[in-house]
Write a structure and sequence with these properties.
homodimer, alpha/beta, Rossmann fold, 6-stranded mixed β-sheet, DNA-binding
Amino acid sequence: MSVTLKDVALAARVSISTASRALGGSGLTSERTQQRLTRIARELGYRPNPIARGLKTGQSRLVGLLVHNLANASFQVMAEVVQARLKALGYQMLLCIAGDDPQLESDTLTTLADHRVDGLIVVPTGKNGARLTALANEIPIVCLVRRDDGTDLETVLADDSEGAYVGTRYLIELGHRRIGIIVGRPDTTSGRERLSGYVRALREASIQVDDALIHAGHFEPETGAASCRKLLDLAEPPSAIFVANHEATLGVLRVIAERGLSIPDDLSLLCYEHSPWFEWHRPAISIVDNGASDLANLAVDRLLHRMDAKGNGADGVREYRVGARLVKRDSCRPFDPSPRKSSATKSSRAKA
Amino acid sequence: MSVTLKDVALAARVSISTASRALGGSGLTSERTQQRLTRIARELGYRPNPIARGLKTGQSRLVGLLVHNLANASFQVMAEVVQARLKALGYQMLLCIAGDDPQLESDTLTTLADHRVDGLIVVPTGKNGARLTALANEIPIVCLVRRDDGTDLETVLADDSEGAYVGTRYLIELGHRRIGIIVGRPDTTSGRERLSGYVRALREASIQVDDALIHAGHFEPETGAASCRKLLDLAEPPSAIFVANHEATLGVLRVIAERGLSIPDDLSLLCYEHSPWFEWHRPAISIVDNGASDLANLAVDRLLHRMDAKGNGADGVREYRVGARLVKRDSCRPFDPSPRKSSATKSSRAKA
DNA sequence: CGCATTGCTGCAAACGATTGCAGTATTGGC
DNA sequence: GCCAATACTGCAATCGTTTGCAGCAATGCG
């Protein structure tokens, strides 16, 4: 096949071990041989075989990243960040996509473990806590974005409660009183926390929480569309909608367009998470940015830390929070109390 | 560490080689020992160490996928398809992201080769042909989506010329005569081919090709926006725009919104490649689908074929084409010859 | 009953690197 | 000039598997 250490050693007329030591920079060889071997290795195009090395050292230089999908922009940037960071450190990323399916997650975890990854970053479904805990005895693991309640693994989370709070407060400050929210399933941490942030902001402003304005559901455009319709059909429809569930946004936008409503004139819209087309959409959509790249970076940091401090299982902190950031664009405007009912009108395109 | 073959052999009171043969399903062991060993292995939780196996067999069971980014929806689905297909075959995908940067591509290629991947699917930048050719002697490689002119590696391409032809003809059939096109850089195969399909369709319909209607540039929203502005500012602006460059679409949509133009009433819009929000956008945007998942599937097929038929370098076909598909939605309508100039009007929302 | 065939099984050598231990120059001190 | 210390270098074992070859029992045939 390719050039092995043996070939280099042969060419340099030294033993394999000397060659290994010289190239490995162990400092146990003379300056001269080291330089000579480096030169010869380069000339021959020698590149160490990580498989053989791995067998001896017990490391694969591979790190697994397990996400739900790639359609979600947050996962995209996380994947890109993780791959870039790891690459710089000589690791390679093994990217796996397990949907939101616990069975598939479990299988994939097995595959990853089989491949002897040196570390693992997982966005858990939440249904494989025991499995993850068991695996954590073999491999350093860090959970990302979601908490798996079945385990106490180190977890890097977005501060969803704070994010939703900040977003809701922004809308309140603009004068909105009836604020609809479309949020993720209550059996996910993010769903629960975003909802709690919303409620907290309302309470703080002494606004009555109206259950009719709260819609929780799966992460799909269809669900978002359905929720949006219900909100708009209310006798007293909201003047602002906070779509705190990224995937639902597409559906919401469609319904708004269908009804001929104009943003932000007829309705203020605030969304969650970053997506390239939120910026380019007209009007540009204001968002609460959950800081996907910060999350990914922190997860890598923590994983690296764990991989270094091998073995010492318990080191205090088990949960890290990354702050959310409000990005104001053009989809929210101060509440205008002039009577305007649901989808009836669609006037006012005049530039103010 | 974990359970090794030795442990299994010891527990079963057979030699390591017998254990290996029994579990490997070589058919060289008696039915009885085979079953016994399988049972014991399961009980002990034995899982073969791919690193050790790899060292012996020279295989890593890893396949590299090198793409430009993950923001492009086509790359997303390709990554998902490749990972799913490979997983089913016991391979794992090593996903690398090298932007459109030849240097980074070259580095990444090295990393991938170092990790001894069993195969490689590459979306080439086009600047590392020699490198790829050299690498192909060691590793089966299939190029995807783009052709690298510096090499004659097997390549799976979208039929971009056909796609652009079909799209353009569709617009012509709707009665459009002045059709603007925004297309990729002419130094990429896709850029050239899409343009050629456009020109072919026009010629076929005996429509004069007007260079002012053709904009080629980098794959970025900004470029798209700039091109779109120029098109709309023409003395005789187009009645339809074909954005045959996926990344540019965001910019185009923004400019259209900024000018208060309505699609498809004021302008027909046809885009290239699939993206989830094209469907959910109102009006839903018609596209020419390049068949990303077909492309990925075919690339995997070809790669597997190469990996089987190891060594025999030259087998006739070197280029595979995957047909494009026109997906009609709501962003194109028949040409209305009534005089309507640029951004002046924005009437007509009445449901037809 | 003897011998060749068949069917399993075990021994041992790989695969390509790392590393503890022992051996050999080289140097300096006395 | 001799010996100890120092500085390299080489031998060989090892990581967990696979696999060619040889050994050995059981079987069938004459």
